[in-house]
Structures are given as C-alpha cells and as structure tokens.
Design goal:
With 438 residues, the chain is of the alpha/beta class. It folds into two domains: 180 residues, Rossmann fold (3-Layer(aba) Sandwich), CATH 3.40.50; 208 residues, 3-Layer(bba) Sandwich (FAD/NAD(P)-binding domain), CATH 3.50.50.60. The protein has 15 helices and 20 strands. Helix 1 packs across helix 13 and helix 9 runs antiparallel to helix 11. The relative contact order is 0.18. The chain binds flavin-adenine dinucleotide (FAD).
Length: 438
C-alpha cells in the first residue's frame, strides 16, 4: 500500500468534492492523507458566505462536507492563507499532490463613469456582508433611500434583489449575520429592480429561483409582459427543444401574469438595458441606461437612453480570482510566474472554471481532476515531513477548533429559533477556534 499526501487549498465545495473523490479511489494499493487549508478559520467557502440565508436547504450539503472532515485521513488547517502564511513551494516540498480550490472572490467592475460613487457596491461585497464573512463586516451598505437597482441577470443578482426586496421579518429565522438583519429592519428600500443587459431568453437565472418569486407574499413582483412575449416570439421553435430556456420563459411569463397584492415592497425584473453612467451629486442618484434590441439573437444598442432613479446600486456581473503570488492558472493547470506548468499541482472549481455552475457542478469537475491526478501519481511518494513544521501551530484553527466555533454558533442560534448566529469578528472566531489572541 502506497500512502500519498495531498494538500487541498480552499475549503469550499470544490475542495471537499476533491477530497471525496480521492477517498472514493482509495484501494488496497493506494491511500491518501488529506490536509485542507483555508484562509478563514471557518470552512465551507461560498456555502457559508455566498448562498442566500433564505435558502437553508442548499446549505444541507455541509453534512457531506462534515462527513469527509470526520474521516481519520483528514486534517483542517484554518487561518492559513496561501501566498501569505504558506507558499506553493512549501506545499510542493511536502505533498505529492497539491490542489488549488481557492474560488473567485473579486467582483467584476462595470467600467463606466460614476461607478465609484458612494452607494454603488459589488455583490462580491454585499453578499459576504449579509452572510457574516469576517472581512466584510464594515461594508455598511446604505439602505436609507427607497430605490435599489441590481445589475446582472444571474442567480447572484436575483439573491441580492430578493434579499433587498423581502420584508425583513422573513429573514428573522435565518442565519443571516446579526449586523445585516438590523440594517434590513431599518431599510427604507421599497422598489428593487434587477436589470439585465440582454433579453429574457438570455438570462442566466435558473427557473427554481424565478419560480419562488410569485410565492413572495409581502413583495409584489413585476416583469413587463411584452418583454416576455417578444422573447418567446424571438426564440420560436427553440422552445420545444431547449428545456431550460422553456422553463425560464414560462416562469417569467407566470411572474408577468401573477396577481399583485398591492404590497408596499416591489421587485421588478427588467431586460435589454446597458448601464452607461452612474449619476449623482456626491452619491448615486440615477443610472443612465442604453435601451437594447435583439436582432437574430444578437443584442445591439439603440439611440434610446433612459434614466432610472437609484439610491443603492449593486453590481452582480461576475467574479474573478484574487491573485496568489507565485502562480498563474493556465487552462486548468497551475504554472509558475514564467508560465512553466508545475507538476503535481492542480486547480478545481471556480478557481479553474471561473464563476459558473452550482455547487453540484464542482462535484463532477473535481471527479474529472481526480481522474487526472490518479493517472499522474508519482511512483514513489515524497516522504514523511509534516507541513506543521512550516506553520506556526499556535495560529492554526484545526478541525476541533472549527467544531468549537460551529457548536457555539448553532447553540447561540437555537436560543432564538435560528439555525445559527454567525460569529463575524476575526478575533472572536480565532479565540473560539482555540487560537490565542493578544
Ligand atoms: C452569492 C452566491 C450565491 C450562490 N448560491 C448558490 C446556490 O444557492 N446554490 C448553488 O448550488 N450554488 C450557489 N452558488 C455557487 C456555489 O457557491 C459555487 O459553485 C461554489 O461555492 C464554488 O466552489 P469553490 O470551492 O470553487 O469556491 P468557494 O466556495 O469560493 O471556496 C473557495 C475557498 O477558498 C478559500 N481561499 C481563497 N483564497 C485562499 C488562499 N489564498 N489561501 C487559502 N484559502 C483560500 C476561501 O476562503 C474559500 O473558503 C452561489 C455563488 C455565489 C457567489
């Protein structure tokens, strides 16, 4: 039996599914010892800091992650950042296989004038703020106006729009961060518009997310009926063959036809608008859009321009990876700064594919990468040096440390009928996780 040591950097879905696929390939001839690193004291990646708090069922995938973490071949090293606390060359010395599962955490910019005005924030800041990521506690979005616009036509834009549009008591029993719950209770936002550049037929929303909108009892949801009718006419016979497209357009048509209850809170979906400029004296007040058309499935601009009032602008147009010193991502393989492929180093999940796909997509992706790893395993493993020698043991949050954080959060939540109350400060997370803080 040959035992290989594997470092997985990033404790999100891609990291855990890689560990799972490696475990599934253990046999009489080979075994794996898996060390998982994350820059945060807490694992689970975007399942903790991205998935919307009003979607608790999605978070049940963490049971799979915890099962992997309970195996005897697994160790967790939280509060260890690749590129800062440890370097890829340290990992390469010790591990036979290094897998980077570090995701994509930076929000893409619109690149238009006025984007830096106060009142404009990226979903890449807004979402981790309401989800209690310790780096985003001070984002402080201003919800004192009445109109919000979310730019983007994918599920992240939908999450931001829905969370802003909900009556706050609907969030009371979720695991949303306490600081965000307080701000949403004080919010005076009443009109939220999610704006896509292309047509309804091109939107990246998935239909379950669209279908839950008409079920909101205290928020009226609007889509212009003619935008959906025009989209249905444009796609024509494709509707018969393309199941997802059909399901999306049917869901949008249902929203367009849904009865409105006269609620004070309104959530609208608007299409074919390209943001040109963010306008305002000292902070965002309006957004200027070009009105687009679709000709032969291609979106083109027109001379028509409109302005919409806006007190809060959230941009949700995608993510890109933060730079990690010493490495570049070359089509799914990892290279050094000179572009040379690093043998034994692999990349998975959003770090590899970019920000696309749901949690489950990372499972098939990780399985594919593990197949490649198995084919390329070295004949002889590197030996028995331990990574602990390269790290300051006193600053690491181990799996036991994370378990202590988890228990504290869940029991604080139970007192209030919530799944958990997240600890959001670095110092408290570290101290609960067993790290001495001065
Ligand atoms: C706002 C939002 C909502 C979503 N909602 C859903 C949903 O409802 N349902 C669904 O199926 N999918 C959803 N997704 C998609 C899903 O979250 C992703 O498919 C998945 O999280 C990608 O997994 P990953 O492991 O590649 O990246 P991530 O989940 O981002 O994990 C990356 C991990 O790497 C760590 N890391 C980063 N850099 C370093 C470093 N230098 N050193 C050490 N650690 C590092 C991070 O702390 C993080 O824990 C959502 C995504 C977003 C952005």
């Amino acid at each position: 039996m040959t035992t290989y040591r594997v470092a997985i950097v990033g404790a999100g879905p891609a990291g855990y599914f890689t560990a799972q696929a490696l475990n599934n390939s253990i046999n009489d001839e080979r075994n794996f010892l898996i060390d998982m690193f994350d820059r945060l004291p807490t694992p689970w990646g975007l399942v903790r800091s991205g998935v919307a708090p009003d979607h608790p069922k999605i978070r049940t995938v963490t049971k799979v992650f915890e099962k992997i973490a309970s195996e005897s071949n697994y160790r967790y090293f939280g509060n260890v950042e690749l590129g800062k606390d440890i370097h890829i060359s340290d990992l390469e010395k010790i591990y036979d296989v290094v897998v980077l599962a570090t995701g994509t955490s930076l929000g893409k910019k619109l690149g238009i004038p006025g984007e830096d005005l106060p009142g404009v924030i990226s979903a890449a800041d807004f979402v981790p703020w309401y989800n209690g990521h310790p780096d985003y506690v001070n984002v402080n979005p201003q919800l004192s106006g009445t109109c919000a616009i979310v730019i983007g036509a994918g599920n992240v834009a939908m999450d931001c729009g829905r969370i802003l549009g909900l009556v706050p008591h609907e969030l009371n029993s979720t695991d949303i961060a306490d600081h965000a719950l307080d701000v949403f209770h004080d919010s005076s936002i009443r009109d939220v518009t999610i704006v896509g550049r292309r047509g309804p037929e091109h939107a990246a929303f998935t239909s379950p997310e669209l279908r839950e909108l008409p079920k909101l009892t205290e928020t009226d949801v609007f889509i212009k009926e003619e935008q959906i009718a025009d989209a249905i006419a444009r796609v024509g016979s494709r509707l018969e063959n393309e199941k997802d497209l059909r399901s999306n357009l049917e869901a949008m048509r249902e929203i367009a036809h849904a009865d409105r209850r006269g609620n004070e809170r309104k959530l609208s979906l608007a299409f074919l608008l390209t943001p040109l400029e963010v306008l305002g004296e000292g902070r965002v007040e309006r957004v200027r859009f070009a009105v687009n058309k679709v000709i032969d499935d291609v979106v083109t601009g027109s001379d028509e321009v409109i302005e919409l009032p806006c007190d809060l602008l959230i941009t949700a147009i995608g993510y890109e990876a933060a730079e990690i010193p010493g490495i570049t991502n070359e089509r799914g393989r990892v290279a050094n700064n000179e572009g040379k492929i690093r043998d034994g180093v692999y990349v998975v999940g959003w770090a590899k594919r970019g920000p696309s796909g749901v949690i489950g997509t990372n499972k098939s992706d990780s399985s594919e990468v593990v197949k490649k790893i198995l084919l390329e395993l070295p004949a002889a493993p590197k030996g028995s040096a331990d990574i602990s020698e390269h790290l300051n043991g006193e600053t690491i949050v181990t799996h036991d440390g994370w378990s202590a954080i988890n228990v504290a959060e869940v029991s604080a939540g139970e007192e209030r009928g919530r799944p958990r109350r997240k600890v959001v400060s670095w110092s408290e997370l570290l101290s609960l996780g067993g790290v001495k803080t001065t």
